[in-house]
Design brief:
The protein has about 325 residues and is of the alpha+beta class. It has five domains: about 1-30; about 30-100, no CATH class; about 105-195, no CATH class; about 195-255, Antifreeze-like/N-acetylneuraminic acid synthase C-terminal domain (Type Iii Antifreeze Protein Isoform Hplc 12); about 260-330, SH3 type barrels, CATH 2.30.30. It is about 20% helix and about 40% strand. The longest helix has 25 residues, at about 1-25. About 20% of the residues are buried.
């Protein structure tokens, strides 16, 4: 009987020790600071910062940075804030600051300007049609981020003040992704009419022929472009520069010309053509000439001045109707 009492008395003690051992085991894992702390919502919780915090993981401790931003927390203040919530972090590596990053979905500036243009077109007849308008935002607007939650951001123009005469505007936009809280941003600027024109990508020296690879299309404010500016790249490619031309500058017809394939005072070949007979001889060009130009040349054998059509590099053709038979005989070999 006495032996049974001893056994019965040991049971509660054994149970208590087991419970205590379990409790010690539950708290044996040390609270450690996470690496690369990133949050997705508006609130930073203890579990976002530390591992092994148990039930305290869901406790809100700080307000999160704005989407696309990074925040910094002083380590000493974090130790104090964590202990107030029953979490003991000893900061064994003596960290001074903790960085918290909140990813964001970037709203491209083109999306912002497209939304403003679309709203202006709704309220102003002068801008209601055509694609030749650009929005110029004043200053250097900082990047506009919304929550990165997997949903595509939607943009809306909440308010717009617009002066059609000057093209100036002030707009407030709202953007949100999914069910996240919308974010607002205000912009000022102006809308301008633009034109796309061909320009050179490099300096072209006088007399150089412009290749297709030398030309790109660029958009310029229309009021700043010469009315005589060339707007079709086909009117540039294959032509030569009349003067040295700078890169990225609008060109006019006076800047280019057909390539000069006959140079003044250069030696040329003169050909006389008539049905069944072609006679050629040497001459000298009295002026520059491009393909198809009619220029004056000097027949070196007869010392006569005649006119012919430029047909190739250093080649001029004279038709029988424009040359007497004496000229033909004069250059016959």
């Amino acid at each position: 009987m006495i032996e049974m009492k001893k056994q019965c008395g040991l049971f509660p003690l054994t149970l208590a020790l087991a419970i205590l051992a379990g409790a010690i085991g539950a708290h044996a894992q040390q609270v450690t600071l996470r690496e690369n702390i990133r949050v997705s919502g508006d609130i930073v919780r203890i579990g976002d910062l530390f591992e092994n915090t148990g039930d305290a993981a869901g406790i809100a401790i700080y307000r999160a940075p704005a989407p696309g931003k990074t925040g910094v927390v002083n380590a000493g203040r974090l130790v104090y804030a964590a202990r107030r919530q029953g979490v003991r972090w000893t900061n064994p590596y003596q960290v001074r600051e903790i960085t918290i990053t909140r990813p964001g979905q970037l709203i491209a500036q083109s999306e912002i300007t497209d939304a403003i243009v679309e709203r202006i077109r709704r309220i102003s007849d002068a801008y209601s049609s055509g694609d030749g308008f650009n929005v110029i935002l004043e200053g250097d607007p900082e990047p506009f981020f919304v929550a990165a939650n997997g949903s595509l951001a939607r943009i809306e123009v909440l308010h717009l003040n617009f002066d059609p005469r000057s093209g100036r505007f002030a707009a407030t936009l709202s953007a949100r992704a999914g069910n996240a809280k919308p974010r607002r941003r205000s912009y000022q600027g102006r809308i301008v009419e633009v034109v796309e024109i061909p320009v050179l990508v490099r300096r072209i020296d006088r007399g150089d022929i412009i290749a297709a690879s030398d030309v790109v299309m660029r958009t310029y404010e229309k009021r700043r472009v010469n009315r005589r500016a060339i707007i079709d790249r086909a009117d540039i490619v294959g032509l030569s520069a009349r003067r040295p031309l700078r890169a990225l500058m609008p060109l006019t017809s006076s800047d280019v010309e057909r390539p000069r394939i006959v140079q003044r005072n250069s030696l040329i070949t003169i050909s006389y053509d008539r049905p069944g007979l072609t006679v050629s001889g040497q001459g000298r060009a009295l002026s520059d000439g491009s393909m198809g130009d009619v220029i004056s040349v000097l027949n070196l054998r007869s010392n006569r001045r005649i006119q012919g059509t430029v047909t190739a590099k250093n080649m001029v053709a004279v038709t029988v109707s424009s040359a007497r038979r004496t000229k033909i005989s004069a250059v016959r070999n």
